[in-house]
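Batch manifest, entry 17 of 40.
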Amino acid sequence: MAEASRRAARRPRKGGLPNAVFVAAGVEMLPVELAGLADLVTVRFPWGSLLRGALGLDDRAAIAIARLVSAMGALEMTVSVQDRDAVGLGRPAGPFGDRDIERIRGVYAGFGLELCDVRPLGLEDLTDLHSTWARRLRVDRDRRAWSLRLERPRSD
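Output type: structure tokens
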């Protein structure tokens, strides 16, 4: 997070994001004042309760994530789940797949977000993320990663 906040603090013409907000808190304890403020919420390689929320396995965490997204905003998640993760997550064993996608679709639809895109990430995608976690997890060598995009439907 330190590197991301340094990049965000740059001048806008150098790639800075003057309105970026970084919060160090458990997903279940995010300040209510953040509700609906984010045009884009990005979750990369979550674990623990954040992963359970991202996968729609923990309603409290999923609500907290969805609550951040503004009326016309989006939620982008990059997840990597393996068989050995099943026990700690409370999900059936097996690779990330259709059951997970349908659970995420259903849970987040209940919070007003529509699943628009799901795709496996290749090496080039992972390189573009500049993620140290992807390297540590040995994603694309020892495990797969998936990108999911959810959006609030436009009300015309």
